[in-house]
C-alpha cells in the first residue's frame, strides 16, 4: 500500500483510522478529566428565554409583552442540541417598541410587525413540542412511570412565573399545563456551586465557558443557557424541578421541607420516649400554645377568613386592592382609602396584618393555659379600645 509523499501526517492518520473526528455536540470533555455525571431524572430539557417589551423608566399601565419566543431542546444523555424553535411575536397592548428595548434586545420594529400573536405562537410551540415528544417518546407528566421525562428550564422564574403567566391572564389565553412546572437554572447553579451568579455571561465564565452571540437575544441566551446546563451536568449536578403551579407536582423545595418536618417529628418523638415524663409532655403542649402565630401573605389558611374592610381616617370604608405589578409584593392584598388619589387620607394596611388580629381573636385555648388566654383577651380589649378611640377622634 503506497501513499503519496505530499500527504500530510494528519491526513495519513485519518485514512488509517487512527484519528477520530470530533463530535459536533457540546458534550466534548476536557482531556484528562473523568466524568462526574450523575444519573438524571430527566432525559431532555427545553430551555426557554423570552424577550419582552421594556422601557428605560417604569410607566404606569405598561406591562411586559413577549416579542421573541425562543426554545432549545437539549439531550441530557449526550449534551446535543436536538432542535431550536424561534418566533417573533407582535405586541398588542403597546405596539411600538421603545428605543431602549430595540437597543437592549436588537429586535427591530419591522421584525415584531411581521410577527405572530402570542396565542398563535403558543400553538406553534405546542406543535413543535408534540413533534419531538412523539419522536423521542418523552413525557412532561412527572407522575407517570415513563423512562424518558422532559422538563422546561429557564434562567430565573421570570419567564414562566411572571411574563407568560400574566400575559395569558390579561389576554384571556389558556396557560398550558405542561408549562406550569420548570427548573430555575439560576437557583440550581447557586445551590450546586454555592455561589450566586451575577448573570448568565458571568456564570459561564465561572465554569470556563465562553458566551456566544449577542446578550439579550432570546435564541442566543437560550442556546448559551443550554451549554451551561450541560456543563453543570458534567460537573455532577442533578436537575430537579424548582417551581410548579400545579398541586400534584412536588418541587425540590417542597420535598426538602417535608423531609425537615419528618425529621423534627422523629426528634420530638425520640425525646419524649427517652424522658418518659407526662409532666414534660404537658409543658411541651403549653409551649406550643404560647407560640405566636406566623402570618404571611402566602399562607393558604388565611384565605378562608373573611374580614370587613376597615374604616380609614376619613371615615370611609376602605377599598380592597391587589398588587398587579411584577415584584416581591405581586398578588399581595391591601386596603387603602377609596379617595386616596384625590383628596382622601393616605390610609394603607396589608391584609395579612388585619387577618393576624382576626386569627388571634379567634384562637382557642385549653383550660390548662389560663395565663395565655388572659394575655390574648387583654390584647383584644386594648385593640378594641384603640379602634374606638381612633373612630371617636376622627368624628
From TrEMBL:
<dbReference type="InterPro" id="IPR051274">
    <property type="entry name" value="3-5_Exoribonuclease"/>
</dbReference>
<dbReference type="Pfam" id="PF06839">
    <property type="entry name" value="Zn_ribbon_GRF"/>
</dbReference>
<dbReference type="InterPro" id="IPR047201">
    <property type="entry name" value="ERI-1_3'hExo-like"/>
</dbReference>
<feature type="compositionally biased region" description="Basic and acidic residues">
    <location>
        <begin position="263"/>
        <end position="272"/>
    </location>
</feature>
<feature type="compositionally biased region" description="Basic and acidic residues">
    <location>
        <begin position="281"/>
        <end position="290"/>
    </location>
</feature>
<feature type="domain" description="GRF-type">
    <location>
        <begin position="312"/>
        <end position="354"/>
    </location>
</feature>
<keyword id="KW-0540">Nuclease</keyword>
<keyword id="KW-0479">Metal-binding</keyword>
<dbReference type="InterPro" id="IPR036397">
    <property type="entry name" value="RNaseH_sf"/>
</dbReference>
<feature type="region of interest" description="Disordered">
    <location>
        <begin position="263"/>
        <end position="291"/>
    </location>
</feature>
<dbReference type="Pfam" id="PF00929">
    <property type="entry name" value="RNase_T"/>
</dbReference>
<dbReference type="GO" id="GO:0000175">
    <property type="term" value="F:3'-5'-RNA exonuclease activity"/>
</dbReference>
<dbReference type="InterPro" id="IPR010666">
    <property type="entry name" value="Znf_GRF"/>
</dbReference>
<dbReference type="GO" id="GO:0008270">
    <property type="term" value="F:zinc ion binding"/>
</dbReference>
<keyword id="KW-0269">Exonuclease</keyword>
<dbReference type="GO" id="GO:0003676">
    <property type="term" value="F:nucleic acid binding"/>
</dbReference>
<keyword id="KW-0862">Zinc</keyword>
<keyword id="KW-0378">Hydrolase</keyword>
<dbReference type="InterPro" id="IPR012337">
    <property type="entry name" value="RNaseH-like_sf"/>
</dbReference>
<dbReference type="InterPro" id="IPR013520">
    <property type="entry name" value="Ribonucl_H"/>
</dbReference>
<keyword id="KW-0863">Zinc-finger</keyword>
<protein>
    <recommendedName>
        <fullName>GRF-type domain-containing protein</fullName>
    </recommendedName>
</protein>
Amino acid at each position: 500500500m503506497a501513499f503519496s509523499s505530499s500527504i500530510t501526517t494528519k491526513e495519513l492518520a485519518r485514512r488509517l483510522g487512527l484519528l477520530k473526528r470530533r463530535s459536533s455536540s457540546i458534550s466534548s470533555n476536557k482531556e484528562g478529566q473523568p466524568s462526574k455525571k450523575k444519573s438524571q431524572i430527566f432525559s431532555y430539557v427545553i430551555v426557554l428565554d423570552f424577550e419582552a417589551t421594556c422601557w428605560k423608566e417604569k410607566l404606569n399601565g405598561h406591562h411586559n409583552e413577549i416579542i421573541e419566543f425562543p426554545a432549545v431542546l437539549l439531550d441530557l444523555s449526550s449534551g446535543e442540541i436536538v432542535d431550536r424553535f424561534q418566533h417573533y411575536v407582535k405586541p398588542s397592548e403597546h405596539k411600538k417598541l421603545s428605543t431602549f428595548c430595540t437597543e437592549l434586545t436588537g429586535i427591530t420594529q419591522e421584525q415584531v410587525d411581521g410577527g405572530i400573536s402570542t396565542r398563535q405562537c403558543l400553538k406553534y410551540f405546542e406543535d413543535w413540542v408534540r413533534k419531538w415528544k412523539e419522536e423521542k417518546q418523552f413525557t412532561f407528566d412527572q407522575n407517570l412511570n415513563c423512562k424518558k421525562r422532559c422538563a422546561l428550564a429557564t434562567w430565573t422564574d421570570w419567564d414562566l412565573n411572571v411574563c407568560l403567566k400574566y400575559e395569558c391572564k390579561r389576554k384571556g389565553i389558556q396557560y398550558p399545563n405542561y408549562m406550569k412546572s420548570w427548573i430555575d437554572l439560576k437557583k440550581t447553579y447557586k445551590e450546586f456551586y454555592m455561589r450566586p451568579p451575577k448573570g448568565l455571561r458571568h456564570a459561564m465564565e465561572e465554569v470556563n465557558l465562553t458566551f456566544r452571540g449577542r446578550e439579550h437575544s432570546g435564541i442566543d441566551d437560550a442556546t448559551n443557557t443550554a451549554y451551561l446546563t450541560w456543563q453543570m451536568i458534567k460537573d455532577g449536578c442533578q436537575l430537579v424541578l424548582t417551581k410548579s403551579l400545579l398541586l400534584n407536582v412536588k418541587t425540590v423545595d417542597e420535598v426538602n421541607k417535608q423531609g425537615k418536618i419528618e425529621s423534627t417529628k422523629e426528634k420530638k418523638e425520640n425525646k419524649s420516649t427517652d424522658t418518659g415524663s407526662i409532666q414534660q409532655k404537658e409543658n411541651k403542649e403549653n409551649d406550643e400554645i404560647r407560640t405566636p402565630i406566623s402570618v404571611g401573605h402566602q399562607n393558604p389558611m388565611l384565605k378562608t377568613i373573611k374580614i370587613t374592610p376597615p374604616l380609614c381616617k376619613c371615615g370611609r370604608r376602605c377599598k380592597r386592592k391587589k398588587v398587579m405589578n411584577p415584584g416581591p409584593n405581586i398578588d399581595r392584598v391591601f386596603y387603602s382609602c377609596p379617595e386616596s388619589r384625590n383628596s382622601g387620607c393616605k390610609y394603607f394596611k396589608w391584609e395579612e396584618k388585619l387577618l393576624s388580629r382576626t386569627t388571634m381573636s379567634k384562637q382557642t385555648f385549653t383550660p390548662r393555659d389560663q395565663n395565655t388566654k388572659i394575655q390574648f383577651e387583654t390584647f383584644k380589649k386594648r385593640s378594641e379600645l384603640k379602634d374606638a378611640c381612633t373612630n371617636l377622634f376622627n368624628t
